[in-house]
Design goal:
By secondary structure, the protein is an alpha+beta fold. It folds into two domains: 89 residues, no CATH class; 106 residues, no CATH class. It is 40% helix and 14% strand. The chain contains eight helices and three strands. It has a three-stranded antiparallel beta sheet with strand order 1-2-3.
Length: 205
Amino acid sequence: MRYRFVDAHKKVWPITLMCAVLKVSRSGYYDWCDRPPSDRDRANAVLDNEIQAVFEEHRERYGSPRITDELNDRGIACSENRVARRMQTRGFRAVQRRKFKVTTDSSHDKPVADDLIEQDFAASEPNEKWVSDITYVWTDEGWLYLATVMDLYSRAIVGWSMNRRMTQQLAIDALTMALFRRAFPGRRSSTRIAAASTVQRPTSG
């Protein structure tokens, strides 16, 4: 097993270093390389090719249980544990399907702000109309919810906020950023700010 590990990772780390860490001799490793492959090694090579074929056919979405079922249906006898080991050795990891996240909850008894926009998305000057929405994005750390505030005049995002949880504070933080970035435009003029009318009240979390 140690020599097999060295051979599988010789393009990643120096052979001398791996032999020292694994406490095996370099001469022993090279002797092992000169040996003809065992029946087990040949069988694993054949199985690896079959696993890769199924894995790629299903766009890397199948894990070891479904790949095992597929191989058995094709007349290739193998256990799930063995398939899982071979997949781990080859670095095959199934892509997890992203679950749909609901960002709108219309079934609640909380107060709803008036619709000041009324489907009129034209603006004649900056800060006349703001609109906001909440969506979600997938990252290496999981789902993150994103709230944004857009100025309809320039279509620029003037405020935003991200969090692991979709709470009322998520929308409040985005609106607060917009107000500070635009220096609270409602204080200096009669410009109507309509952001609050379109902020969807998220489910408290």
